[in-house]
């Protein structure tokens, strides 16, 4: 009867301890099978590596892509004298049936029927080991079998990320080899130390990327129409490309058929959709490429190598999730540096109103929903559908109170005692930040992490000039009147503190910034 060692785990890094431990199990008869026989190398013991989260990469929890993990495992097996089978296991929602899911993956991918009668499970994670134990599998605890316990692979990987040279003494030569050949040590440091991207590869844990992808697709025609005439053929890059909807339209332009179309996206969910589209033949241009990068982590392209850079609804995220102006300036400088002389950066984003610090009065509807005595302090602890339902039931005035609790950029406001409870005084920029976000109930906890009105038009002009860009006359702020008609005017009104009505200010900006030819 064949004998197996099932070794489930993410396996981003392999250690010398694992090699010694698995070799002893597989060849030295260090464990008993349930029927009392000894499992030895003569029995043809096979180590089955169930590589979990195999469809994830470039995230803090899963920095190394599956194919590199598989390569290291195969190299490890040769050097350790192990017979191995490597099986990818895609990430699943949290379930107490994880063990069964993994066993079914092994059966489907490798045709192996692993049972308690022919398999020992090697696992050092107590919660995971308990799932297999409940199914009757004998357990070998790997690092948990030893006292004191040696460094676990993830701890060694974190040493690498922290530039602790001791990781090389603990990592197996197979990992050192593959990491060196494919520069995975640099990748791990970059991803694990990323100040913006979360464990699962997104900007915030609460963001619904399906909703975002749909919104990007719906707006793509409008965005492309606004920038199309300013695009310079050659190497065209869309930074923060979402699901690639704008590049799809660029792909259809006959004038750009000889251009390289390059998408850069940080969110794993959206990047994977781009790759899927390319695999499905959505793009006709053979020179379409996608990269998963965080632009805050440093330069993405070589100096003077890009003809056109496009960014849509990105710069306010850099401002919000980074160090505000310092991070934004670094980003603009990076764009300038990678732009060829005469090349162009086209940026479309939200924009703060002129005089955003001016105190204004904001009248909000109190009759379009409930008006609780106080806002909830625990929205982040609720399921997403309950968050959306709670917000949908609030009046516009009550949503302001809730916004003030959840918004990451504190602002002050003062209720005006006019007998209605509907009027407050606050800075104009804070008023517009609330009004342009108040209807995003599906992604409220994500949207309240971002500031829309951090910069006004004068700030943008000064920043671009400081970096060295020339501002094309086509640039300027503007007001999205659809938002005014459908989102603002029905439930809100602006006035001076003296009560004089104010027109709605600008909401967006289009920047066409060119690098001078002689630079």
From TrEMBL:
One of its GO terms (biological process) is methylation. One of its GO terms (molecular function) is methyltransferase activity. Keywords: Methyltransferase, Transferase. InterPro entries: SAM-dependent_MTases_sf. The keyword NADP does not apply. This is Methyltransferase.
